[in-house]
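To assess whether the prediction recovers the assembly geometry, we first specified each molecular entity separately, as shown.
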Amino acid sequence: MIELVEVSKRYAGDAASWAVRQLSLTVADGELVALVGESGSGKTTLLKMVNRLIEPDHGEVRIAGRDVRGEDPVALRRTIGYVIQHAGLLPHLSVSDNVAMVPWLLGWGRGDIDRRVDELLALVGLSPAEYRARFPDQLSGGQRQRVGVARALAARPQVVLLDEPFGALDPITRVALQRELARIHRELALTTILVTHDMVEALTLADRVVVMCRGELRQVATPHEMVTAPADEYVARLVDVVRDQGRQLQALAASERTERPAPVQEDGDGG
Ligand SMILES: Nc1ncnc2c1ncn2[C@@H]1O[C@H](COP(=O)(O)OP(=O)(O)O)[C@@H](O)[C@H]1O
Ligand SMILES: [Mg+2]
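The predicted structure of the complete assembly is given in tokenized form:
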């Protein structure tokens, strides 16, 4: 379980505004929580306070009931999977050395590491024989993200943090990786926080969706609740963007004309 209790962070040089303000959130064991919000809303700051890449000014972060301030930050980070947008692979290391990094730092034996690397590459859908010896610049964007996920899971973390991991991928690759992530999350019974600015990604993958705006929570709800009962105008607008896209697609499919149908009005028939 991950618990954030009234956590606040204000960056030096930005005295006027809080990046994250008195935010409380609990993520249960085995849960996948998606954190959504526009750019600058404090998502990355929040995530980095969980693995102590950033220290909060106020409040407390607990993992499995233990205050993270009591842990050595480096040791803590080796027990938490972390995936970022461009995978952050080390370019001069092979795929297998990238994936093996944390087990190696933890002092695992060579045989255990080799077995683990093969197991992980298979888990993320990359044939070990084909990909082990490649370098990051010999991979597609989607393959790099797969390796990033494999690396994050190498030392069998219980908690995994992902910061817009699929944001830079084309839509088809993105959907494939979203499905894989959901499968891996379930198979390994992980506790996952997924940061995204993509409301569709959040609604389709998460057990609960958290909407942030200017460092504060607007709503924490299941996807169903969020779609049927958005807490305020802001959340409603985020949901409506998705709904309007769906309507426009349906209108196109239903249209017999070859020209573009008129855009669906916001206050239309309520569909
Ligand atoms: N290192 C930093 N120094 C100063 N301000 C920062 C720093 N990192 C983020 N911020 C500010 O904090 C706010 C939240 O940023 P961030 O957590 O990166 O949001 P998000 O991930 O939702 O885009 C923004 O206003 C951003 O400009
Ligand atoms: Mg961010």
